[in-house]
Hints:
heterodimer, A: CATH 2.40.50.200, 2 domains, 7 helices, 6 strands, B: mainly alpha, about 75% helix, about 0% strand
Amino acid sequence: MSVDARIARGGVLGLWAVFFVVLWWSGTSDRYLGSRTQWIVPFGAVVLTLAALAYGYGYFRARRRGPSLTLREATSLFALLVPLAAVLLVPHAALGSFAATRKGGITFPLARPAAPSAPSQASFLDIRIAEGDRDFAAEAGIRDGAHVRLLGFVTRSRDVPAGTFELARFYVACCIADAEAVGVPIDGRAQAVRQGRFEHDTWLEVTGSLERRGKRFIVAADRITRVPTPKQPYLSFRT
Amino acid sequence: MDRTVDASPALPAEPGWLRLVRAWEAKTVSEAAFGRLLGLFVLLVIVASGTGFTDGPAAQTFLLIFSSIVIEALPFILVGAIASAAIAVFLPERAFGSIGRLPPALQIPAAALGGFAFPVCECGSVPVARRLIARGVAPGAGIAFMLASPVLNPLVLGSTWVAYGGHARGAEMVAGRASLGLLAAALAGAVIGRTGAGDLLRPRASDHEEHDHGGGAAGRAVAFSSHLVSDFLFMGKFIVLGAALSAFVQAAVPQSVVSAVGGAPVLSALSLMAVAYVLSLCSEADAFIAASFTSFSPGAQLAFLVLGPIADMKLSVLYGATFRGWFVPRLLLVTVPLIVAGSLVFGALVK
């Protein structure tokens, strides 16, 4: 006996509704979407659920069998399940140093954000913007000797001053397709000798002082600590 | 021994691949076969997970970008499908008859300006445009609406203003984006939409499916949900394909390769348009990315902002499924030169 296409369609719609509800309920949507677009998840959960319920109601009300599912439509429905499989395959993954080599290379500053309240609150983006924007640097107090604390992952970048490695973080506007890696060079030679070289994608918390070297600000680290990947690996543009 | 000769003209034999395609389109799936397909799908996921195939950084980058594009786009597809189903079920035929009788010269700009009132991304406007054209609105007007709404809607213009820091630069970019987007949409509508709806729209199997529009409010609600799900699933699978293509290119090609070409105005506009095509960003977010291309002129950034919502990788797949095969090449042929020219003019006016 052939499969009723309406049941198969309703099943796929229902799976997507459940997926959005789980994403909303588990609070894991920030692994895929930026802060500006978080509303999409509750919206999708509610609307998809209502659509699935309305479709189910229509099916039972019609009291007759729908068209038979063709091989072509079955292929389409399975294609719609692929993203759900993709999420299941990488449930805890985050963009890292490989993605940074693909999604970096943009020159800064971006749209200028509000300055941080204190230099110690400066983020990767603030430091990068301060490299080319003197007014912003003055407003944010980002200058030689300013003490900062950064949490990020070690990247593969070679575009850093000699004797440093790059610590970076991804910034997301809407979804991680638009994520941009923003890095700051770290001079952690003494620390690195003591702890061994830091592997790519290792998450570190670095505290130290800013130092101007050529066009870049670097952080002369006085403390480097390995930390687990944070619950929220991405940052949002402050606009 | 007598030999009989068949004098009737022999029909050319169908090539094997065509027979396979026909079988794929028409063959129905039994419950047992569906169960086996589902089992195979689950098995593939388990094998991919168990073998560590998806543990590599390239595979993870691909899967993360792919799933995030789909998660972001699907609710918008649903909004488009809701609007499309509402047009199909709740708007009376006579409303479209009177719109369809208006001269296209009036319909096209009016439809393009209608984009101000439809605040969804580009994915949502495609099913609405398809439904409008199918119900008698001039094809040019449907195309103009489809292309204008993701550029002109208030959320997109607001995010452009914010991304460029407001003030004069924000206002310039908003004005440039709105006017060039409106012009490109109207021109594409006027040039591509001269054809009839039948020549423009690709027929869909679900078009021939029975939708019950009778039976009062309950019957209409059933027809509405049926149209909605049909449109959502149809568009959704092409979003999946487009997102996969975009994610693949993003994981394979460093962005710096393209952004290295920042010099000549035409070349820089074309290279940022290529970036917009590949990235397939949501039009409500793309201004934040455009603003980061500071080694490019404002004109090239404007080209990025106008082309992205009109044509990108995921949209091309969606257009290919909605319209005839010639639509995407013709759309690029009409809009790309206009956008390049517009970006040069903008670049000359704005320093």
